[in-house]
C-alpha cells in the first residue's frame, strides 16, 4: 500500500514538472515582442478571410477570393509576405 502511494506521488510530481517546463518553454518563445506594429498584405477585391493560423513564427491567412482560394504566408518577425498561394479551379 505504501509503495502504491509513493508511485502516485512520484507520478504527480513528474506531471507537474513536465507542465511547468513546457509552460516555461512557451513563454520564452513568445514572438509577439519582435513583431512589427503593422503588417500589410493585399488581397483581391471581394475576398473574405476564411482562417488565420500562427505556427513557428509564421502567419497563415486563408482567403476565399472571387477567382479562387488564396493562402498568404507572412513572417511575423519581419512582417514580410513570403509566399502567396493561389488555388485556382482546373481549366
Overview of the molecule:
The chain is an alpha+beta fold and 91 residues long. The model has no long low-confidence stretch (mean pLDDT 81). The N and C termini lie far apart (72 Å). It has one helix at residues 2-28; strands at 48-55, 58-65, 68-75, 81-87. It contains 1 helix and 4 strands. Strands 1-2-3-4 form a 4-stranded antiparallel β-sheet, with no helix packed on it. The radius of gyration is 22 Å and the shape is elongated.
Largest sheet: 4 strands, antiparallel
Give the termini distance in whole angstroms. Answer: 72 Å
Low-confidence residue ranges: none
Please give the order of strands in the largest beta sheet. Answer: 1-2-3-4
How big is the Rg? 22 Å
Helix content: 25-40%
In N-to-C order, the SSE pattern is HEEEE
Count of DSSP-assigned helices: 1
- Please tell me what the overall shape is: elongated
Give structural attributes:
1 helix, elongated, alpha+beta, about 90 residues, 4 strands
Brief description of this entry?
The protein is an alpha+beta fold and 91 residues long. The protein has one helix at 2-28, and strands at 48-55, 58-65, 68-75, 81-87.
Structural topology:
Layout: H1 2-28, E1 48-55, E2 58-65, E3 68-75, E4 81-87
Antiparallel strand pairs: 1-2, 2-3, 3-4
Amino acid at each position: 500500500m505504501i509503495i502504491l502511494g509513493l508511485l502516485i506521488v512520484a507520478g504527480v510530481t513528474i506531471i507537474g514538472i513536465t507542465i511547468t517546463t513546457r509552460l516555461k518553454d512557451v513563454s520564452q518563445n513568445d514572438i509577439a515582442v519582435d513583431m512589427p506594429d503593422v503588417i500589410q498584405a493585399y488581397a483581391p477585391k471581394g475576398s473574405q478571410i476564411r482562417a488565420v493560423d500562427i505556427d513557428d513564427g509564421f502567419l497563415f491567412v486563408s482567403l476565399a477570393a472571387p477567382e479562387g482560394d488564396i493562402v498568404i504566408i507572412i513572417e511575423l518577425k519581419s512582417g514580410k509576405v513570403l509566399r502567396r498561394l493561389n488555388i485556382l479551379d482546373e481549366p
